[in-house]
Structures are given as structure tokens and as C-alpha cells.
Q: What sequence folds into this?
């Protein structure tokens, strides 16, 4: 997943991510994945998805 994330960053964003990873002495790929997870969690918190309840297979359509 990390490679997929990194391949889709713009050059300038990649450079900024590399600088921040270097400052924190962490792996660039790991930082990218952690930041993606945080972003997804924040989006999910703002817009909770509505999952319909499971349908009883015995009920007619």
C-alpha cells in the first residue's frame, strides 16, 4: 500500500513528505501510510457512512 500511496503523490508533496520523514527519523513509506490512515479516519468522522441493516433472506424482495 505504501508504494501505491507514494506513486500518486506530486513531486513537491513527495519532497515535503521526505523532508518530514527525515526530520522525524522515520521511514518515508511508513509515514505516508500513517498520514493516509489519519486522513481517512478524519473523513470518516466527518461523514459517517450509513450502512443498511442486513436483509433477512426469508423476506420477499
A:
Amino acid at each position: 500500500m505504501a508504494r501505491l500511496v507514494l506513486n500518486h503523490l506530486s513531486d513537491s508533496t513527495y519532497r515535503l513528505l521526505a523532508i518530514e520523514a527525515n526530520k522525524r527519523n522515520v521511514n518515508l513509506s511508513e509515514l505516508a501510510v500513517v498520514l493516509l490512515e489519519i486522513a481517512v479516519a478524519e473523513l470518516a468522522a466527518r461523514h459517517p457512512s450509513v450502512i443498511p441493516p442486513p436483509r433477512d433472506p426469508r423476506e420477499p424482495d
